[in-house]
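It is worth pausing here to work through a concrete case rather than discussing structure prediction in the abstract. The textbook approach is simple: state the sequence, then state the predicted structure, then interpret. We follow exactly that order.
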Amino acid sequence: MSNEAPPAVQYRDLMAECQQLMTKVADLESDRNEHVLVEDTLKPLDGGRRAYRLVGDVLVERTVAEVLPSISQNKDNVRNAVESAEVNLSQTKLRHVC
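Step two, the predicted structure:
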């Protein structure tokens, strides 16, 4: 019976890792969707219009022209993080199957 414990522990660890990665992907997808929503809202606005952005715990006043490029860049960074997490998840699932 002691021979069965290590594979069971490995299986449990892999399942926990998969669950963590799935949660991370879901959180990142939510962040990306928020960035897309903000970007779509700001695009049609005049570049000189005031926009407020939360930086850490501080609400900062900027213009749409100043905020929009950083929103787009952050959206791209989040998309890359999602893709990376999905690759990690698929690799973890492959280890689980093999």
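Step three, interpretation. The chain has one domain: 5-97. Strands lie at 50-55, 58-63.
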